[in-house]
Structure formats: C-alpha cells, structure tokens
C-alpha cells in the first residue's frame, strides 16, 4: 500500500504533465491526468485521516 506522501507525489507528477490553461483547450489525456491526480489526492487525504484516527 502507498503512503499519503507517495500518493501526493504521484499526483504532483501527473499534474506537472498538464500545460497551463492559457496554452489552449485540454486534451482528453490532460483531463484524465487531472482527474487521476484529484483521485490520488483524495485517497491520500483518506489515508492521512485514518492515520490520525489510529494515533488517538
């Protein structure tokens, strides 16, 4: 299983592949990368919350 830090790093790597909005309309691949990055960040948040609950 990945840690929340690893998931956030993977999300950042995906987001870095997408050019700025001013570069023009997003391609299907770029939208997919951004959606996957958002899902990875959500999973990282879920893992971090679970870790905080387990520490109490």
Structural class: mainly alpha
The run of helices and strands is: HH
**Helical coverage, percent range:** over 70%
Strand % is: under 5%
**Can you tell me the residue ranges where pLDDT is under 50 for at least 5 consecutive residues?**
none
Q: Which term fits the overall shape?
A: elongated
Oligomer: single chain
With helices defined by DSSP (H or I, 4 residues minimum), what is the helix count?
2
Arithmetic mean pLDDT: 93
Outline the secondary-structure elements:
Elements: H1 4-16, H2 28-55
Helix pairs in contact: 1-2
Describe the protein.
The structure is a single chain. The protein is built from two helices and no strands. By secondary structure, the protein is mostly helical. Helix 1 runs antiparallel to helix 2 (28-55). The longest helix is centred in the C-terminal third of the chain and has 28 residues, at 28-55. The radius of gyration is 14 Å and the shape is elongated. The chain starts with a helix and ends with a helix. The model has no long low-confidence stretch (mean pLDDT 93).
Q: What labels describe this entry?
A:
56 residues, mainly alpha, 73% helix
Structure summary:
By secondary structure, this protein is mainly alpha-helical. It has helices spanning 4-16, 28-55. Helices cover 73% and strands 0% of the residues.
